[in-house]
Amino acid sequence: MSETNGTILSVNGLKTYFQTEDGVVKAVDGITFELKKGETLGIVGESGSGKSVTNLSVMRLIPEPPGKIVAGDIVFSGIDVRALSIDEVRKIRGKRIAMIFQDPMTSLNPFLKISTQLMEVTRLHLGHTKDEAYAHALKMLKLVGIPDAGTRLDEYPHQFSGGMRQRVMIAMALSCDPELLIADEPTTALDVTIQAQILELIKDLKARMGTSVILITHDLGVVAGMTDKIIVMYAGKVFEQASTKELFATPANPYTKGLLKSVPDPAHEQGKELYQIPGLPPDVAHLPPGCPFAERCDRATDLCRQQYPPFVEINADHHSLCHFAREVYAESVAEQNKQEL
Amino acid sequence: MIIPMALLVITLTWALVRIAPGNFYTQEKKLPPAVEENIKKKYGLDKPWYQQYGIMMWNVVRGDFGSSLKYEGQTVNEIIWRHFPYSATIGILAYVLALLIGLTAGVIASLKQNSIFDYGSTSLAMLGLSVPNFVLGPLLVLVFSFWLYWLPPARWSLAGLVLPVVTLAAIYAAYIARLTRAGMLEVMRSDYIRTARAKGLDEKTVLLRHGLRGGIIPVVSFTGPALAALLAGTVVVEKVFAIPGLGNIFIQSVLNRDEPLVLGIVAFLSILIMVFNLLVDISYGFLDPRIRYE
Ligand SMILES: Nc1ncnc2c1ncn2[C@@H]1O[C@H](COP(=O)(O)OP(=O)(O)OP(=O)(O)O)[C@@H](O)[C@H]1O
Ligand SMILES: [Mg+2]
Q: To the nearest whole angstrom, how far is the Cα of B107 from the nearest Cα of chain A?
């Protein structure tokens, strides 16, 4: 294994395209990011921005056809994931990289007992016997806080509530003690109160087990207290990338500002209608030559509509894809200073 | 539910036999009125229709269909039990064959979607569905019996069973293959299959342990009634291959206006079909825990 310098995952220039009747869908178009051991990365963006495809690419789970990873490097713990045979990838899936999905109602197999679904992972990857796997499954259910785990283990998914199913998914994902956990909108389908519990659980387990985490969401409010750094995606591109603290305090991209404005803030503006970015995300099969966000951006100029924006470095850890990144950043800093006064 | 349905079916059949022109005793020539009178009396046909209906129903409820009018001295039950085994033998064999071929072809076609195998088996299934029995049967006889001399055209022997079983199975195999393919394609796109793959399971396990059950549920709902229909005998195939099964006897009994035999067979078949539908409902429960626990 090569030297990794504490980096668990690095993705470089990843492009994943889908061949559709409508043309080539550039779902992910040149994504670069890095995740250090023990860190939590947030990936934020509206629906269709390519968050799931990015992470399914890391797991090599893109259905092919119609999809294909056409370019880029994915290096996990020193391993070039794209160069692996499918059998070698399977040894990583579920063992070293685990995933939980958006909809707990449909992500568990309705025909199999919870115990069967939990046991098959450790039997496969840890070589557990039936008894060992059963005992381990029980331990995992207790770990994720499912009451009466002993009896619930032999039940079927439909006998669990949404929140409980997501706990089962988390138990399943963590049963082989993976180095990286990818949580793809783990709370989007859940009630608000349950959402907080599940996030708390992930945070707690991550701290205890030292797992690195990628947390995908379209809600910036969710990642605020959870992540070390954030990438903001739009139309298959990284629009902004910064530490969580800096991204919230001094965003350098109009899209990020729009997302921040649309986070519900219980502290003030009660009763006021929530801000929404005008318009809809673009069709990634037919992108205009300029900035893909220009149509919806309140400060777009002719330059934005005609020329593709540069990826501007604000500082070593903060980048923004915008013709006016520095100006937007300066405004954010000014606002920040005003608030602190 | 089964009993009232069966009684309704029998009532309708009885009414149809009565409304249809002709009767069992008239041949080409008309009978002298006195003889006709006598026959009517003997079989209770002189009574008003509702009394006849009442007597008929009472007998049916007791499971006593009486004797055939045509084959005198043989009870309806005897005739059914003598001919049913022929139909059942071909039916069960055709059912097993259709399931084997249909499920295998359907699963492979869904796995290799848009491959040559997929197009090949899908076209073959289309052919199987659109070529009727009465064409396929004689065609097979022509090729395998009269050209190649491989198999006998009609004899009750193991070799003789091959052609009727294949003829009968073809349409069901085609239908099952289509249902399986569609069902599997649908299931293999579902979220829980993605979860199974994300766990690192190999494709074989993903397919057999996680995919198959959901994928064949549409097949199950089809196979119950299909098996009943296959067991009951298929008129055309039994005619083409001269098999003395229930289907053949049924046609004969209708042409003869042999009312007790017609009613007996209809009652037998409707109970058969309903029992198999019940079995389907029960097997759903085995396949799908969501139904089992309701
Ligand atoms: N199997 C597929 N075939 C064709 N296009 C696809 C496929 N999967 C994803 N895409 C396209 O890729 C783009 C990115 O999808 P992706 O699922 O990554 O979005 P997302 O950011 O995860 O959105 P969401 O918040 O809705 O989950 C979308 O335009 C989508 O239509
Ligand atoms: Mg998604």
A: 18
